[in-house]
DNA sequence: CTGAAAGCGCTTACAG
DNA sequence: CTGAAAGCGCTTACAG
């Protein structure tokens, strides 16, 4: 059923019905109520394409993922938060999958040219990220999950990765550890660099140099945590503590430690970064895990609000947030053994 | 830039340009090539809303998730497969998040009434699922991931959950196990029931009765696997083997077994269903895990093809597939301990 | 407070 | 092989 038919049934003009539905003030209260009631009863909804053509707004926010690796548990949590908040505003998410960085850029061009979305969410920023310039150029509004050094003012929400790892490393050095391994993300991403900076600063404060053999980079997966940890343990001068970039990496690291016949929280201390997965709690591991904690789902929710604000006209420069990260001590951290 | 401007630059009518872009045969080859080249150079793309209005097709497939629980690692893998295939056809995914079953039904009504999507993907079907009737009624094309007993012919892709668990249970009984626990999904879902049926059939074939105390239902999470397994182990007459519904449940079950001072593949045999997570391989666990294996990502890819076929006019009745599940023996299964 | 009509940017029968 | 024009279903200045 279209507007014409719907208005016809009510004996009103399309104009009045449209205004009643959009909550314009000029419509008599009784008329509006009648229209709203009928719309609910008959299930009338404006055609999205027509609405998009007429207003230039389509009620959709885009997000692009790289097909394979990107689509992990972190993404799920983030999308859960993002989606549930957007849904309250009747905004949907348009999800595009791409195979490469070039394809990602091409997708933003496509989305902008075809006016398929009102804004996009950017994620996993690199220190120097070409997407910022592209989107600015395309005049496609966006909110960045993370930060970048790229100039320009734009909306973003990041967590304090530097502070998180700085705190965690400080705890370990305070306990007496001097050989601390870091299971980090891929080089070049802002969060990876910030974490390494926090690590370096904490070690520097204790006069401990950085041993490149204790630095590992890779996906935040069980598999990669296992492999990197095995590598650390195979070294002559093995670490007495590890910082794991995610709960997944931590699971892998714990397996590697156990298979080497050692015990977490006794022979090796472990601190993990916890994005708060409802199905994988550090409280439930054995031993319970000391973590740096920040909910990625909450970040998704907040970013949804930020993008809605942006579309309402809030200046991007007013939509910048950096969230602190909490260090939660549990049983996986102890002074170095003997 | 819109069609009018773009056509103007080329000195052609909108009609001809539109036809060239859509690959209509009536356009002279030289003209078409000139148009295509210019479109690529100038980045011209038809406005999606206008295109949707004119053709009734919007190039978008919808999928609805329940905000909290639905959005787990299984979803990620599925979406990865779905998205990468749809992207090749320049089709995007519209993702809606809801809080309840009622809200999900309301969302399909909204999507249909506002013509926001060309089709939807349905997932997690219940044995008797009201969504089938609703979508049929709304004439919104759909492909179901899973099966249901509901009448009507519609497109679906499911895996043979019955056969998977039947095989797995047969292996355990053949090894001599008689007390076998089942960590299953929530009751009412088709896959849960099919799995339980396969389990019951295998036990029945050996004359073993079903002990309700060995049946557990819940989310496929580490947490739930841990809790259910703890419950099984706390029983007087504890099981000697367990079937875990997912790799996540298996991780939790393994932790529970270890914390009870027992060893998987020695004191307790374990078979997990593996949806093939790239970051969590049964080969890498200790011991390596015997699994029933079926890639949920591959299912997503295939469902993408099915929905594209459906929109091309393939009858839904021709789009029904049930995939076999492979049993892969590794080291977590052994005869019951003395 | 309400309505007739132009316009958003396409596609596609119809005419040539 | 190409084009002028109607039509898809809305919103919104403009007029009353």
Automatic annotation (TrEMBL), chains A, B:
InterPro entries: HTH_LacI, LacI/GalR-like_sensor, Lambda_DNA-bd_dom_sf, Peripla_BP_I
PANTHER family (UniProt xref): HTH-TYPE TRANSCRIPTIONAL REGULATOR GALS, LACI-RELATED TRANSCRIPTIONAL REPRESSOR
SMART domains with a match to the protein in the record: HTH_LACI (SM00354)
Transport as UniProt keyword: no
Organism for this UniProt entry: Ensifer canadensis
Record GO terms (molecular function): DNA-binding transcription factor activity; transcription cis-regulatory region binding
UniProt entry tagged with the keyword Transmembrane: no
Gene3D superfamilies given in the database record: 3.40.50.2300, lambda repressor-like DNA-binding domains (1.10.260.40)
SUPFAM superfamilies to which the protein is assigned, alphabetical: lambda repressor-like DNA-binding domains (SSF47413), Periplasmic binding protein-like I (SSF53822)
Protein name, UniProt field: Substrate-binding domain-containing protein
């Amino acid at each position: 059923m279209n507007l014409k038919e719907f208005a016809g049934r009510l004996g009103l003009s399309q104009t009045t019905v449209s205004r009643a539905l959009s909550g314009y003030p000029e419509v008599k209260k009784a008329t509006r109520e009648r229209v709203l009631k009928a719309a609910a009863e008959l299930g009338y909804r404006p055609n999205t394409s027509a609405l998009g053509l007429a207003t230039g707004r389509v009620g959709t926010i885009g997000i692009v993922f790289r097909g394979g690796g990107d689509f992990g548990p972190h993404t799920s949590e983030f999308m859960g938060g993002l989606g549930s908040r957007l849904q309250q505003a009747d905004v949907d998410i348009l999800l595009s999958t791409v195979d490469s960085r070039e394809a990602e850029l091409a997708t933003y061009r496509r989305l902008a040219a075809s006016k398929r979305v009102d804004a996009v969410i950017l994620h996993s920023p690199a220190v120097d990220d070409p997407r910022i310039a592209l989107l600015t150029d395309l005049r496609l509004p966006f909110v960045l999950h993370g930060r970048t050094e790229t100039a320009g003012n734009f909306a973003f929400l990041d967590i304090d990765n530097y502070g998180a790892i700085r705190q965690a490393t400080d705890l370990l050095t305070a306990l007496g550890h001097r050989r601390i391994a870091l299971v980090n993300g891929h080089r070049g991403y802002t969060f990876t660099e910030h974490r390494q900076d926090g690590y370096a600063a904490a070690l520097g404060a204790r006069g401990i140099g950085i041993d490149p053999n204790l630095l590992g980079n890779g996906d935040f997966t069980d598999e990669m945590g296992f492999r990197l940890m095995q590598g650390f343990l195979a070294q002559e001068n093995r670490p007495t503590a590890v910082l794991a970039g995610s709960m997944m990496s931590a699971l892998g690291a714990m397996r590697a430690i156990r298979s080497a016949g050692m015990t977490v929280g006794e022979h090796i201390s472990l601190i993990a970064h916890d994005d708060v997965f409802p199905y994988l709690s550090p409280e439930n591991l054995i031993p319970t895990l000391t973590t740096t904690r920040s909910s990625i789902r909450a970040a998704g929710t907040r970013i949804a609000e930020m993008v809605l604000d942006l579309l309402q006209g809030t200046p991007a420069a007013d939509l910048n947030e950096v969230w602190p990260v909490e260090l939660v001590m549990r049983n996986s951290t102890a002074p170095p053994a003997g």
